[in-house]
Every structure is written in C-alpha cells, then in structure tokens.
Amino acid sequence: MAMETGLIFHPYMRPGRTARQTFEWGVQSSVAADKAGFTSMMISEHASQIWENIPNPELIMAAAALQTKNIHFAPMAHILPHQHPTKLAMMVGWLSQILEGRYFMGIGAGAYPLASYMHGIRGDDQKTENLNRMVRESLDIMEKIWKREPFFYEGEFWSAGFPEEEPAETEEDEQHKLANYSPWNGAFPEFAVTGFSYNSPSMKLAGERNFKPVSIYSGLDALKKHWEVYSEANIKAGYTPNRARHAVSQTVFVADTDAEAKKEVMEGPIGYCFDRYLIPIWRRFGMMDGFAKDAGIDPLKADLEFLVDNVFVVGSPDTVVEKLNALFEKCGGWGTLQIESHDYYDDPAPWFHSLELAAKEVAPRIKLPDQQRAPEGADA
Predict the structure, then answer these.
(1) Burial label, 326 (beta-carbon count in 10 A; 0-12, 13-18, 19+)
(2) For residue 238, how many other CB atoms are within 10 A of its CB?
(3) Given CA atoms 358, 212, 60, 98 in this order, what sign does their dihedral have?
(4) Which of 109, 143, 166, 366 makes the best surface tag, with the fewest CB within 10 Å?
(5) CB 289 within 8 A of CB 228
(6) Alpha helices (H) along 99-236
(7) What distance in Å separates the CA atoms of residue 338 and residue 171, rounded to the nearest whole number?
C-alpha cells in the first residue's frame, strides 16, 4: 500500500480576491484533486485573516459534493469554541448525509486570538487550557445530539438538549417527527485534529480519543514529537497507533524538471504568498526555528530560497520521491501527504499538473512505514 495524497485548502488567496473567486477556486481545486486521485481535501475555517478567508468551509464541500465522486472532505478545522455545538452537530450531520459518507470532521480550538475575540472570547478565556475545555465540552454535546436520546445538559460553556419524542402511532404522527441530523448511516464521523507547535496539546487529545492526527510540518523535531505524544496517549487509552492514519501537511510542487519546479515556486503564487504573508507569520509562531535547527543555520537567515531548497518538497517526480523517502527515514513516515493549496486562480494549469504528478508519479513510489524495510526482492 502506497502513501495517499490529500489537499489542504487554507486557501492562501492573495488580498483583493473576492469571496466568489475564493469559492470558485475551492470547488475547481476539489474537482481537479478528485480527478487526479487524491483521497481527501481539507478546507480551513478562518474568520480573521485576509489571506485565509473562509468562514464557511461547508459551503465549498456542499458545492463540490455534486461534482466529485471519490474524494473525502473535512473542515480543517471547525473551531469548536466559536460555535454552539447543537447547531454544528446538525450542520455536520446533514453535510455528511449530502456527501453520503465522504466526510470526516476536523476540529480545533483556534490559533488566531483575533478570531476568538470576534466570538466573544478574550483575555484569560483565550488561554489554551480554557479553549481545550470548550473543545471537550462541545464534543460531548455533539455526540449526545447525534445519539438522538433525550437529555438536557447545563455545562460550563453551553446548555443543550434533545427532547423526548413520543412514538408515532398514526400516519399523522409520522408527519411531525423530529428531523434526523445524525451523520450518514447513523455513525459518528471520523474526527481529525491538527498539531502545529512542538508541544501541541491537540496530539494528546487525538491519541486519547483515537482521532486522526494531522501535523502541520514545522521541522523534524516537532513532527517526531507529534507522533510520540499521539502514540503514547493512544496506547494509554487502549488503542493501537497506526502511522497510516497520520497526515502531514507540507508545501509541495512537482514539475517535469527540478529547474521548472523551483522557478515556478520562487516566482509564482507560492513564493508571492510566502514572501508577503507566511514567512512573517512563521517567524511570529516560531516555525522558522525548527527549520533552521534542522539545517544548522540562524533562523533570521531562513528566507524563501532556503525554504524551497531545504524545507519544501519541490522538484521533478524523481527528486520529490527521493526527498520524501529521506523524510520517511528520518521521522518514521506517515500515511497521507496533505499538500497545501495556493492561489493559482488566474492560471491553474501548472498547479493542476503538479497535483497530477504528485498523485500518479510520486505517491505510488512512497511506501507506508511498515513497508519501508521490506527485504530486497520481496513484494511490497
């Protein structure tokens, strides 16, 4: 079994793009990824950053549902402290039904203080421990709603309930039953959580609840730590960690030659985004520290070309395979490469070609962790 490819749509649309353009690019990207053979597309929920402006990821998923066949979708992530859990449970359940099961649910506590402030969360309430308590309470309420059993709950942050319903005894009674907003086939969706920082508390939550772990790549040490924390919590909770469930989000661009790939990244939309937005953000969050440590340089010297040559996975299919296999050897590997999307709205051809090469000429040559050390000549 080979590594899978997924897309993560933040969406990194340059300032000045309209909501309509962002929406169109999201749907176009989902269709292209589905045709290329990608297994998943994660769509961010961000309310405050102009480069990452998608307050309603479920709208793109719903539109894409009718134009795709195989790809699975997830919000990555619904920020649980920002929404009432009953409303979110109903929305998620219905969307899961629309997608007929091609849905899993990314959850998060929120990374941007301004977005939390906009939702009435400020000061000490923005501390990590408080937001994490909100996440856990929200999850508990959502699961109760999906079970459709009578309850009323008054919690620390929300009150919610599900009414007791009398059995339908006549045909007229049937016309007035409560709508069923449980997820597709009545099963809870798979949950996924992202880890960003070295000591991300999300990885412990993922392990404890057997959620899918998704690492935003921020250097080898952080990636190794994510798996260590996740697997330790997963084992302690009585589960068996499986690296095939681990997804890693990374900047990837594949072209026919190494020179073409580097030129496109340096001079195209990816380079434009990093120079103006992501490099300053990464410095603020300390991500450059991990990358610089891996390369043994001063973080202040980590510029775009350094990232292209030492951090991103950029090149021809052969080069990208070589780089990914080297990463697998160093960190133990993962199951899905979640490629970060960028703003190729004006000229999508190079980006869609990159996705095709990644799915068809790269991924089949990357073996999952338990296949890394198969004896020479053995069937993989």
Answers:
(1) exposed
(2) 7
(3) positive
(4) 166
(5) no
(6) 113-118, 128-147, 171-174, 201-209, 220-236
(7) 49
Residue 268 φ/ψ, nearest 5 degrees: -100, -160
**Structure-block tokens of residue 365:** 């040559």
For residue 340, CA distances in Å to 11, 99, 216, 252, 378 come to: 8, 23, 10, 7, 34
Contacting residues for 287 by C-beta, under 8 A, at least 6 apart? 218, 219
Amino acid, res. 200: S
**Average confidence (pLDDT) over 288-294:** 92
Task: Kindly report the average pLDDT of the chain as a whole number.
Answer: 93
- Is residue 286 in a domain? no
Could you list the residue range(s) of the whole structural domain that residue 60 is in?
Answer: 4-167+175-267+313-371
- CA geometry: angle at 57 spanning 32 and 108, to 5°? 120
Q: How far is CA 247 from CA 7, 63, 195, 244, 281, in A?
A: 11, 25, 10, 8, 22
Q: Report the domain count for the chain.
A: 1
pLDDT, one tens digit per residue, over 306-328 is 999 999 999 999 999 999 999 99
pLDDT, tens digit, for every residue of 129-170? Answer: 999 999 999 999 999 999 999 999 999 999 999 999 988 899
Q: Is the entire prediction scored with pTM above 0.70? A: yes
Q: Determine contact, residues 7/337, Cβ cutoff 8 Å.
A: no
CA distance 266 to 305: 7
In a domain, 242, yes or no: yes
- Determine, yes or no, domain membership for 288: no
pLDDT given at position 372: 42
Using DSSP, state whether 121 is helix, strand or coil: coil
250 inside domain: yes
